[in-house]
Each structure stands twice: as C-alpha cells, then as structure tokens.
Amino acid sequence: MCLSVPMKIEEIDGLKARCSAMGEERWADLMLLKEDLPVVGEYIQISLGFAQTVVPERDALQAYEMFDEILQALERQSPD
Asked: Is residue 14 classed as helix, strand or coil in its secondary structure?
C-alpha cells in the first residue's frame, strides 16, 4: 500500500515542479500531465516522482488535516 500526500507546486522549471507539503519539499516530473500542465499554486498527487493528477485545493487541505490527526494519534500512543 502506498500513501501519497498532495503537494503544492511552488515553482515550475520546464517539466519539473518543486512542490511542498507538511514541511517537506520534492521535485516532481510533470511529463504525465504535459497535455494539461498544472500551474504554480495548484496541488498535485505524486507517485514515484511523477505527478499523477491535479488535486482540488479543498481536498488537499482536508488531506493535511487528516494526516495531522493520524500523526497526533500516533504520538499519543507512542511509549516514551
């Protein structure tokens, strides 16, 4: 199983996009979306380094909230 966090495009250089999410940054290949390229500020789903789809901002922000809840729950369960 693979979990993928939607990432916000911060910069585009040709068919590469610098993206950020939850304090992490990655470069993603936009080749699979070249027919309808996303723009800076949009959110994309990345798998194996390739942008797979554009994600509506509302959905991306909701995903961040759910991941935060999961991380908080795991921290509460973690023995010190």
From this structure: coil
Question: For the domain bounded by 7-77, which CATH number is listed?
Answer: 2.30.30.140
| All structural domains of the chain with their residue ranges | 7-77
Given a cut of 90, is residue 78 above it in pLDDT? no
CA distance to 12, 18, 33, 39, 43, per residue, from 66 (Å)? 28, 23, 27, 25, 16
Residue 69 confidence (pLDDT)? 93
Q: Backbone dihedral region of 59: left (phi > 0), alpha (psi from -120 to 50 degrees) or beta?
A: alpha
Cα–Cα distance, 54 to 44 (Å, whole number):
4
